[in-house]
Amino acid sequence: MKKLLIILLMYVIGLGAKGQVSQEAFRQWHGDKYSMFIHFGLYSQLGGVWQGKQVKNGYSEQIQAFAPISKKDYEKIAGQFNPTQFNADSIAVLAKKAGMHSIILTSKHHDGFCLFKTATTSFNSYDATPCKRDFVKEISEAARRHGLR
Predict the structure, then answer these.
(1) Which domain holds residue 134?
(2) How much of the chain exceeds pLDDT 70, in percent?
């Protein structure tokens, strides 16, 4: 009974929570209607396969949980992450040609790996990989160059 009351209390408190997105930013995003949504990260390198076996549960980006892969083994994957064919300008051009207005990139997914340089964790695409890239910055700059948000 005590657990139920705590859960209900947390739910009621959560009802009053407000997001931090400005109304203008939301209207702009909502008005875009057609955007490219990109799932990209360490899991992309694995392609849904762990230790030679296709992981059949979940989505590819959930491979760490469903394979399962230990945190230590998953962190080792970052040491091999070097997506040389990732080209932000090509992605932006494709989005523009398809009539899209913006690009949304999963900058940090379930696995905790950041696609940007950050002081909060070294588990990111700049500090933990041989490629030393900030993919969020690359996509953001390419989107602006090609008239996208």
Answers:
(1) 35-145
(2) 93
